[in-house]
Automatic annotation (TrEMBL):
InterPro entries membership: AAA+_ATPase, AAA_lid_NorR, FHA_dom, Homeodomain-like_sf, HTH_Fis, P-loop_NTPase, Sigma_54_int, Sigma_54_int_dom_ATP-bd_1
Pfam families listed in its UniProt record: AAA_lid_14, FHA, HTH_8, Sigma54_activat
Record keywords: ATP-binding, DNA-binding, Nucleotide-binding, Transcription, Transcription regulation
GO molecular function, one term: sequence-specific DNA binding
GO BP terms, alphabetized: regulation of DNA-templated transcription
Record keyword Metal-binding present: no
Source superkingdom: Bacteria
Name assigned to this protein: Response regulator of zinc sigma-54-dependent two-component system
Length: 442
């Protein structure tokens, strides 16, 4: 099929559906052989690693070299920090539009996008929110439509997306939109505890099951009876516990630690991770059978930089939550533009914190975005200007940042030792370091 003369983008039809052009990425290798893969709303990763969507056996191609994704702005090509770069013409790009017919170069291979059939139609939510999750861009409304349908069922849902994109908020939204809304909503971070504690926490134990088990205790699967259990960072679940969780999900029964009998439970599981779980399966770090069991419905939350048009709506929401409620006109001049143009590696969480800082310190300007420890004088007094929930979250963040920095310093930057001293897993420390922009030497 010939390349379309127009730029292929996503278009919403008046009846609330999204028309998605059917496109494929075609890579032509040095010897003339070509490989093709379909493009969708989720990124297509190209690289030399076998877990990529398109694998190129070329020494000049990095393991995860670049990715292509269909957006409202057209097909976007993004370099993933490759060693030898992704080029359009002679220009090494970080992120650029790849119009049909234009050629990009990766190692010795060329990459083009072409139409591969009639457009398909995806359901699109008519709402710009799902629970407390707000978003008006097309990928978010496609996501909301899937969530609306899946929430009312009993199916397990796997939520994928970078840190701070709102995965936990989505899980809360699923619970609130489900027939289980009057039951409990419980959260468990699979990477926060040491492996033996994870098992006791999830499955429970009988009295005397281990030293310190003075009384029997129900695990979270039982505690979430009639409600929803949100398993955050499921990718960190220790490998040896994975068959046990799979068995529990399939049989709807748990066996407490130290017990020989199984007991039924009635909790719906929503799991999330910021990791590429399929990649973890390929590496052997996550069991394939559990992955498929969890991903009965799989949704991907796009990073904020891929839906910048949502920024004003999100900012509006965070301002409206202030006491007294504020609006966009209360922001310092130029602030919205500055917020729109930032890259947001910490996604919506970083945006929310930046808005809170701008409200507290309107003179900060661009500095409001910088990740830095709180300055002298940015203590408890101004936090009272925020609503309780946000003030509490900011206080916790300030505390965690200072606490982790201090522990890392005490242990000469050794994450394993610092994690031991804090009584948490190494993965959690790495995650928090990433969240707060901390380095071992900070
Ligand atoms: N679309 C959204 N609308 C409104 N608030 C949002 C949205 N997305 C995220 N937030 C807010 O951003 C913050 C981070 O969201 P959340 O904790 O759900 O992210 P996450 O993806 O689970 O992060 P992590 O992977 O680090 O656990 C929360 O305060 C949440 O309320």
């Amino acid at each position: 099929m010939p390349d379309s003369p127009h730029r292929p983008t996503l278009t919403a039809s008046p009846d609330g559906a999204l028309e998605v052009p059917t496109l494929e990425a075609v890579v032509t290798l040095e010897g003339g052989r070509s490989l093709a893969a379909p493009l969708s709303l989720t990124p297509l990763v190209i690289g030399s690693s076998p877990e990529c969507d398109l694998t190129l056996a070329d020494a000049r191609v990095s393991r995860r070299h670049c990715e292509l994704v269909l957006t409202e702005r057209g097909v976007m090509l993004k370099d993933l920090g490759s060693k030898n770069g992704t080029l359009i013409g002679d220009v090494r790009i970080v992120e650029a539009q790849l119009a049909p017919g234009k050629t990009a170069t990766i190692g010795a291979a060329s990459l083009v996008v072409r139409e591969a059939g009639a457009p398909s139609i995806l359901p699109l939510s008519t709402s710009t929110r799902f629970g407390d999750v707000v978003g008006s861009t097309l990928p978010m409304r496609v996501l909301f439509a899937r969530l609306e349908r899946a929430a009312v069922t009993q199916e397990t849902i796997l939520v994928l997306g970078e840190s701070g994109t709102g995965k936990e908020l989505i899980a809360r939204g699923i619970h609130a939109a489900s027939p289980r809304r009057d039951g409990p909503f419980m959260v468990f971070d699979c990477g926060a505890l040491s492996p033996n504690l994870v098992e006791a926490e999830l499955f429970g134990y009988v009295r005397g099951a281990f030293t310190g088990a003075h009384a029997a205790r129900a695990g979270l699967l039982e505690q979430a009876e009639g409600g929803t259990l949100f398993l955050d960072e499921i990718g960190e679940l220790p490998l040896d516990l994975q068959p046990k969780l799979l068995r529990a999900l399939e049989s709807r029964q748990v066996r407490r630690l130290g017990s020989s009998t199984y007991k039924g439970f009635d909790a719906r599981v929503v799991a999330a991770t910021h990791r590429d779980l399929a990649g973890r399966v390929a590496e052997g770090a996550f069991r394939e059978d559990l992955y498929y069991r969890l991903a009965v419905v799989q949704v991907v939350v796009p990073p904020l930089r891929e839906r910048r048009e949502d920024i004003p709506l999100l900012v509006q929401r965070f301002l409206a939550l202030q006491t007294p409620p504020l609006s966009l006109k209360d922001l310092p001049p130029g602030a919205l533009e500055m917020l729109r143009s930032h890259h947001w590696p910490g996604n919506v969480r970083e945006l929310r914190n930046t808005v809170a800082r701008l409200v507290l310190f309107p003179d900060l300007g661009e500095q409001a975005i910088l990740k830095r420890p709180a300055r002298e004088g940015e203590g408890p007094r101004p936090l009272t200007a925020l609503p309780l929930r946000e003030a509490r979250e900011m206080a916790v963040e300030q505390f965690e940042r200072a606490y982790i920095s201090e522990k890392l310093r005490e242990h000469g930057g050794n994450v394993a030792q610092a994690a031991d001293a804090m009584g948490v897993s190494r993965q959690l420390v790495y995650r928090l370091m990433e969240r707060y922009g901390l380095q071992r030497g900070n």
